[in-house]
Amino acid sequence: DVELYPDGIWYRRRICDGSDVISRRQYVCIEDSEVPFPAPEDDLYFVAVHGYYDLTFTLAMILHGSQILDMYKDSFNWERLVRLAYNYGTIDAVYLYLLVLNKYYEDYLYPKQSPIPSSVIALFEKSWMCRSIKKWYVKKQQESLSFPVHIPFSLGRIHSSLNYYIVKFRRNQFTPLDTICDVLSQIRHLDFNLRQNLQGTSFSDSHV
User: Fold this and answer.
1) Taking the mean position of all CA atoms in its chain, how far away is CA 1?
2) CA 156 vs CA 26, 129, 186: distances in Å
3) Looking at beta carbons, which pairs linking 166-175 to residues 24 or more positions away fall under 8 Å?
4) More exposed terminus of the chain, fewer Cβ within 10 Å: N or C?
5) How far apart are alpha carbons 201 and 207 in whole angstroms?
6) Which of 63, 68, 72, 62 is nearest to 100 (CA)?
7) For the chain, how far is it from start to end, CA to CA, in angstroms?
């Protein structure tokens, strides 16, 4: 499957600048044709945000991240990833994804060391949002990592919305129309989640 996003938007949240992503693109040769694909930092970032807003990190998402880090471990631009997360109000999504990746290396790839620098994790943990996520994750970490990893609605929707709106406000992008549409979007997805759970099927289970 191929998904095309001119601009990265999930649940009415604009999480990147499409022109910047295109400007950083790389190419791979497939059957004598050059095919563009995102830079490794953008690639990892999209997977993290997509999974977090869908309230699920699947095994495929974590394998994808570990493959990126193993392939680009000597050239991965951690500063760019952190800057993306802070600029677009997605620090919670990226932070939790990195925590799960760390746990995956620890539980399944030992003695292979996680390539995620502790200094990067520390940068994220300066945020109250990430500290809140860490409290939830520390309790969960007592269990062996299993997939899919389900993210509480309170974190993936409510807390993340607060952080996203703070960033929008600082950038003077906070308009009444956007606010109304965002609230209606959140209510719609809450209703969909509840309907799926009542039917015995988690919304996030549909994403593999």
Assistant:
1) 19
2) 30, 11, 11
3) 166/89, 167/86, 167/87, 167/88, 167/89, 168/89
4) N
5) 12
6) 62
7) 12
Q: How far apart are alpha carbons 126 and 130 in whole angstroms?
A: 7
Q: Do 130 and 94 touch, CB atoms closer than 8 A? A: no
**What percentage of the chain carries pLDDT values higher than 70?**
68
Exposure pattern of 162-199 as b/e (b: 16+ CB <10 Å)?
ebbbebbeeeeeeeeeeeeebeeebeebeeebeeeeee
Return d(Cα 37, Cα 22) in angstroms, integer: 9
Q: What is the pTM of this model?
A: 0.76
Tokens representing 165 are 């709106």
Query: Which runs of consecutive H residues, i.e. helices, occur in the chain?
Result: 18-23, 40-53, 59-71, 78-87, 91-108, 118-124, 128-140, 153, 160-170, 176-198
Quick: pLDDT tens for 21-45: 889 998 888 888 888 889 999 999 9
- Strand, coil or helix: 189: helix
The tokens for 49 are 């945000």
Secondary structure element (H or E) that encloses residue 34, with its range:
strand 33-37
- Count of alpha carbons within 13 angstroms of residue 115, beta-carbon side: 14
